[in-house]
Amino acid sequence: MSDSNDGVSFLGSSAYADSVPRRLKLFYAIGASAETIFGVAFNAFNFFFYTNIMGIPGTLAGLAITIALFFDAVTDPLVGAWSDRWRSKLGRRHPFMFAAPLPVMICLFFIYSPPTFLGDTGLFLWLTVLTVLMRSSITLFHVPHLALGAELSADFTERTRIMSLNTLLGSLGGYGTYVIALTFFFNKTPEYDNGLLNAAAYPSLAISAAILGGTVMLASTVLTLKVIPLLPPMRDDIERFSLTSFLLDLKSALTNRNYLMLLIGYLLLSATLGTRDTIGLHMNTYYWELVPSQIRYFALAGLLAALFGYAVTAPLHNRFEKKPVLIVGLIFLLFFATAPVLLRIFGLFPENGTDALMPALMVFYLLTLIFGVILLISAMSALADIADEHELNTHRRQEGIFYAARSFFAKASSGLGHLLAGIAIDVIDFPVGAEPGTVDPDTIFSLGLIDGPIAVIPGIIAVFFYLKYRLTRSRHEEIQAELERRRVITNGSSS
């Protein structure tokens, strides 16, 4: 049997059949920390900066981010499909990864350095354009980087180990940036009791994050160059990237039922996460009345969660398969995420300012993140398995388009979450630049409802789609055996 020429097809499927060298896994995974350095520097602070510091309406700030995310969502599958079909001495993925660092660095700086003379409309346009450019540049690294990880091994559990380390180092980069920002950039000053209200701190953070993130991103790209000769080559008779080939690749990917169920579930979950991420600083600053020196401890909980998730996810997949781990992870994530607000509503959570508040918040936050990490690793590992199933059914190898299409829908959904959060901030008439403890209690109550019970509704619906995922270990082993048989026949016929 010969491979079809109407898609991306390879003579092999991975650089390493079983175990990937630890050093290579490390070099690959540090790329994730670069992404999260940029991600946290932007996502964690930009909404708060533009609403509470620059003073533009929450709807405009949310809309700017939403537009950028929708634009980014479109570029993700384009870059994925393009990298699937790219031919060069640097392979398929690395040329895109090399193109990313510099524009991301420049955009991050200017996002936090808007001209002082701009009004609300000008600031909205400034944020929109720069965010579009920044997120598109990150895509040049993010999508090929994920696809490269899927190509490193064909083993069911080794893929989980690769994605576990990728998630761990991504968490280290992101939460490390959060801790550094709240410790050294947003610390208390004589002028500002709450350093998050200090406008001068944001450009300094942007410069530091840009230099660090760009350096790490470039290092991961350079240090993984040696794997290029080991990756499966693309056949010469495969057509180059075009809009037509892209649309056909995307259509083909969406015909895979397992992929579609995982995709819809992730779309719904992203709406939940997008809403909660957008108002996260508002919740910590005004609902729980925490200061930056306290908020930073949540990042430490995140690091612990990443370490725990890294250690347990692969053994869990060995013991329980990926599907039940996905479902249980999602259910517990949603439960622990919304529990503090619900307990506060019923008068069962420690009051603000008490010694018991921070430990209680830390416990729930830690548990939320542990299950979130396990869920993320499981989903990323499952996508690599789905790519194998897709190759068997269609003779096409499309890691890039699979990861990119997932990102497309996730970002579109997350963008909607950002917009809804921005609108909600305006609907409840949340004041600009208010000092913690001075906001009307009814407004604070409404803020909690948005972050808790309302935000998790899409995530609850996602559970039902994850239940429809069907790819098991035994089925994956059958797929791998058939793919190997096919490659032997192909190699024999071409020799």
Helices, strands, pairings?
Elements: H1 22-43, H2 46-53, H3 58-84, H4 94-99, H5 101-111, H6 120-151, H7 156-185, H8 201-223, H9 243-254, H10 257-278, H11 280-287, H12 292-320, H13 322-345, H14 357-394, H15 399-427, H16 441-454, H17 457-466, H18 473-494
Description:
This protein has helices at residues 22-43, 46-53, 58-84, 94-99, 101-111, 120-151, 156-185, 201-223, 243-254, 257-278, 280-287, 292-320, 322-345, 357-394, 399-427, 441-454, 457-466, 473-494. It has 18 helices and no strands. The protein is an all-alpha fold.
Could you tell me the mean pLDDT? 84
End-to-end Cα distance: 14 Å
Which class do the helix and strand fractions yield? mainly alpha
* Overall 3D shape: globular
Which percent band covers the strand fraction?
Answer: under 5%
Helix content: over 70%
* Total beta-strand segments: 0
Q: Which architecture would the CATH scheme give at its second level? A: Up-down Bundle
CATH topology: Growth Hormone, Chain: A
Largest sheet: none
Low-confidence stretches: 1-13
Report the oligomer: single chain
**Name given to the CATH homologous superfamily:** MFS general substrate transporter like domains
* CATH class call: Mainly Alpha
The ordered H/E elements are HHHHHHHHHHHHHHHHHH
